[in-house]
Design goal:
8-stranded parallel β-sheet, 9 helices
Length: 262
C-alpha cells in the first residue's frame, strides 16, 4: 500500500536534527509522497528548499497562514507568487481564517486569504485551507472563488457535519488527521468521516502536531511524523467500515489527482 501525507510541517525545528531520517522512515512505512506545508514567506521558502532536494516524492505548498496574516504584504505576496510557480509547489496555502486565536486581526486575515485565493486562480493551483471557528465567513468568501479555483482541501478538518457537507458541496476534499484517533476530542469526527465520498478523502499527519493519542508505543518526544500515517488510515478505515487497502488507494489517488503529483 502507498500513502500520501498531504500536510506535514517538515520545516518545523523539531525535525532539524533528523529530517532525512524522518523522510526515510516515511518511505519505509509506504508513505512515498510528502507535501510540506508552507505557512508564511520564510517557511514557504524553506519548504521549497526541502522539496527541491534529490529525494523523490517531496512537494510543498506556498502561502500565508492566518496566524501570520498581520505581516502579510504586497511584497510577501509577490515573493510567494514567484515561489508558487515552481513545479514542486503543488498548492497555495496554508491559507484561510482562524477566529479561535485571532493571532492576526480578522480584517487582515480576510485580506490575506482573498489575495491568496486570487493567486490560486491565477496560477490554477489548488488551495490548502485552514479554518477554525470561522466557517461562516470562510464559506461565504470561498463561494465566490470556487467556480474559478482548481479545487482544494479543507486541511485538518475538525468541524461540524454541516460544515463538512458545505465544503463537500463546494467541491472541496476533506483532510483527516490523527484527531480521529482521540476518543475524547475526535469522536464526532470519527462518527462523521463515513460521510466523505470515496473520491474526496485525504489523509495527513500535520506533524509534528496532532500525534495520534492511541499510538503504542507512544513516541518518546511526543512528535508526530509521516510514518504514522498508516496508523491514522487504520482509524479512518474502521470508521468508514472499509478495508485499509481501500482507504489507502482512494486517498492516494485523490491526492495525486488534486495536487497533480507524478
Amino acid at each position: 500500500m502507498k500513502w500520501v501525507d498531504i500536510g506535514i510541517n517538515l520545516t518545523n525545528k523539531r525535525f532539524d536534527s533528523d529530517r532525512d531520517q524522518v523522510i526515510a522512515s516515511a518511505l519505509a512505512a509506504g508513505v512515498d509522497k510528502l507535501i510540506i506545508t508552507g505557512t508564511n514567506l520564510a517557511e514557504s521558502k524553506k519548504a521549497l528548499q526541502i522539496a527541491s532536494s534529490d529525494i523523490d516524492g517531496l512537494y510543498c505548498t506556498a502561502g500565508c497562514h492566518p496566524h501570520d496574516a498581520g505581516s502579510f504584504s504586497n511584497e510577501a505576496l509577490n515573493e510567494i507568487s514567484a515561489i508558487a510557480e515552481e513545479p514542486e509547489v503543488v498548492a497555495i496555502g496554508e491559507c484561510g481564517l482562524d477566529f479561535n486565536r485571532d493571532f492576526s486581526p480578522r480584517h487582515q486575515q480576510i485580506n490575506a486569504f482573498e489575495r491568496q485565493l486570487e493567486l490560486a486562480v491565477k496560477l490554477q493551483k489548488p488551495v490548502f485551507l485552514h479554518e477554525r471557528d470561522a466557517f461562516d465567513t470562510q464559506y461565504q468568501i470561498l463561494k465566490d472563488y470556487i467556480p474559478k479555483l482548481k479545487g482544494g482541501v479543507a486541511h485538518c478538518f475538525t468541524g461540524t457535519i454541516e460544515a463538512m457537507e458545505a465544503y463537500l458541496e463546494l467541491g472541496l476534499s476533506i483532510g483527516i488527521t490523527g484527531w480521529i484517533c482521540d476518543e475524547r476530542r475526535g469522536q464526532a469526527l470519527y462518527d462523521m468521516v463515513h460521510l466523505i465520498p470515496d473520491n474526496r478523502l485525504m489523509i495527513e499527519t500535520d506533524g509534528p502536531y496532532l500525534t495520534p493519542r492511541d499510538l503504542r508505543p507512544k513516541p518518546k518526544d511526543g512528535r508526530n511524523e509521516p510514518k504514522y500515517l498508516p496508523h491514522i488510515g487504520e482509524a479512518v478505515a474502521r470508521a468508514r467500515e472499509q478495508s485499509l487497502h481501500q482507504v489507502a488507494e482512494n486517498s492516494y489517488n485523490n491526492s495525486c489527482k488534486l495536487f497533480n503529483l507524478e
